[in-house]
Amino acid sequence: MSENNQGRDVFDAIADPTRRRLIRLLAEAEEIPLHELTVQFPMGRTAVSKHLTILKEAGLVLDRKVGRETRFRLNAAPLQEIHDWTAYYTKFWRANMLRLQHLLEEEEE
Amino acid sequence: MSENNQGRDVFDAIADPTRRRLIRLLAEAEEIPLHELTVQFPMGRTAVSKHLTILKEAGLVLDRKVGRETRFRLNAAPLQEIHDWTAYYTKFWRANMLRLQHLLEEEEE
DNA sequence: ATTATAAGACACCTTTTGGTGTCCTGTCAA
DNA sequence: TTGACAGGACACCAAAAGGTGTCTTATAAT
């Protein structure tokens, strides 16, 4: 029981640049109403609202109604999955950096 | 000059589960030809090839022709961008964990 | 009481995505 | 030297994505 509403894939949710910017905006404030978010983007309210719905389905934002506005707040926890996924591959670019370093050292001789 | 061919967004490239599995498979071997990758998925060669093209455009895989086969290898470096992006948000789930921890401690009393 | 604002709910549209099948060309094996 | 195999290059298709505009209903402000 419980868990996020629609169970949207977090990787999918962060694939769109608009949604990543929404995440960033929400990270910089406690709570932001839809109309205030909308003015930050070159698109209509409906579009922004749809993006927020997708973020909500991925569990990345929460919303509550206050008066006539709907305020959104970030829930960054699901991003941990992304962080963990990439962590597995850090060894590869570390390996590459080492290889590059060796090459540079060889060239210096 | 140089840089990746088409400049596809890395976030976009890893959004698809098939492509994430391709990345994983390539991480576990040095080099894998297309037909060998294809048998791992419930879809045709053409589809897998398209996914690999997208990964290539994002700079995540390299390929070379050997005889009649095309062999693919992983280049994990671009994943660093994802890793860095998520790193910014670690403070949020750390904060949440702390809050949860406090709640649990309160309940124990 | 009336008007303006915030936003949900739709219907609608275009482009992109993720798949298919077919044909053609190299390359390796018999 | 004749098959069989690997895979590029298309053309094609259905569904999803990312927008739009309009209508309606709460709520707030005058």
TrEMBL record, chains A, B:
The keyword Acyltransferase appears for this protein: no
Alphabetical UniProt keywords: DNA-binding
InterPro entries: ArsR-like_HTH (IPR011991), HTH_ArsR_DNA-bd_dom (IPR001845), WH-like_DNA-bd_sf (IPR036388), WH_DNA-bd_sf (IPR036390)
SMART domains recorded: HTH_ARSR
GO molecular function: DNA binding; DNA-binding transcription factor activity
Gene3D superfamilies: Winged helix-like DNA-binding domain superfamily/Winged helix DNA-binding domain
Entry annotated with the keyword Signal: no
Residues covered by the HTH arsR-type domain: 1-94
Name of the molecule in the record: DNA-binding transcriptional ArsR family regulator
Species for this entry: Paenibacillus phyllosphaerae
